[in-house]
Every structure is written in structure tokens, then in C-alpha cells.
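Help needed: design a sequence for this.
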């Protein structure tokens, strides 16, 4: 089963690239495989860590100092933290069935216009992971994909 029809059914998934360009003058890159990404090296890191049969469909760059990226696959969320203790880099995988809640927050109402930076928070039974993304459309897309896999 192709991941593209599933992404197209999610809000903003089909038009997210156009929405970024219109809102910010910037655009995430899409490969021929229909993967949204900000930085090619981050996409390659995620691709190198895929399990057999796993598909990546988005890798978004974090904005905070020390923040790495968030990768979305059909099986899990992959977070890279570049400011882990001792100057190390941590890569955390969170299977969708271990996520208890997903949220995103900006300085504007959900019904109003969002600021350019939006934080996504991924909650598990033990902790919450936060990442500041460049653009509310990327945060909304991340939220919607995770929510889709949580409830299905």
C-alpha cells in the first residue's frame, strides 16, 4: 500500500508544500519518493535507521539550539537531540502505540493565524518530548500524522 494516498487524506498533507511557500516564501523539499524534508542529511540519517519494510514520509528540522529533527515513518516517530548530556547526540524512537497524547502550541489560537514557530509535544506514559518546528503547517502535519497512527 502506498503511503501517499494515506497522506493525501490527512488535513494539509496534499497542499502542505504550497501552504508553506505561500505563507513563508519557503518550501520543504519533496523527493521523488514523496518524502517531505528540510535537510537532505537528516533525511539520510532517518533512511539509514529504517527497519525492514518501514517507510519514511517526513523529516522536519527543529529550530531550538541543540535540537536536531523529527522523522515520521509508518511505524514510529524518530527524534534526534543534538544537545544530549556530555555533548552526545541522542536518537529516540517512539512507536505510535506508545504515544498517549500529541499536541502543538503557538502564540495564536487554533482558530487564528499561527506564528512561524510552533512547538509539537509528544507524550508517552513516562515523559513528554518537545520540538520547535519552523512553521505551523509542519507542526500541524506532524500532529495530524501522529494522531492518525495513534487512533488507527
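Sure. Designed sequence:
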Amino acid at each position: 500500500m502506498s503511503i501517499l494516498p494515506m497522506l493525501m487524506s490527512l488535513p494539509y498533507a496534499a497542499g502542505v508544500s504550497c501552504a508553506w511557500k505561500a505563507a513563508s516564501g519557503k518550501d520543504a523539499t519533496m523527493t521523488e519518493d514523496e518524502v517531505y524534508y528540510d535537510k537532505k542529511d537528516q533525511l539520510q540519517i532517518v533512511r539509514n535507521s529504517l527497519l525492514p519494510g518501514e517507510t519514511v514520509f517526513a523529516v522536519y528540522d527543529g529550530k531550538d539550539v541543540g535540537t536536531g529533527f523529527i522523522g515520521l515513518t509508518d511505524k514510529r516517530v524518530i527524534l534526534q537531540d543534538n544537545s544530549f548530556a556530555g555533548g552526545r547526540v541522542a536518537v529516540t524512537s517512539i512507536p505510535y502505540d506508545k504515544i498517549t497524547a500529541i499536541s502543538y502550541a503557538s502564540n495564536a489560537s487554533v482558530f487564528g493565524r499561527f506564528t512561524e514557530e510552533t512547538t509539537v509535544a509528544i507524550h508517552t506514559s513516562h515523559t513528554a518530548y518537545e520540538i520547535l518546528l519552523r512553521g505551523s503547517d509542519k507542526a500541524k502535519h506532524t500532529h495530524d500524522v501522529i494522531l492518525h497512527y495513534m487512533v488507527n
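Residues 1-26 have pLDDT under 50 and may be disordered.
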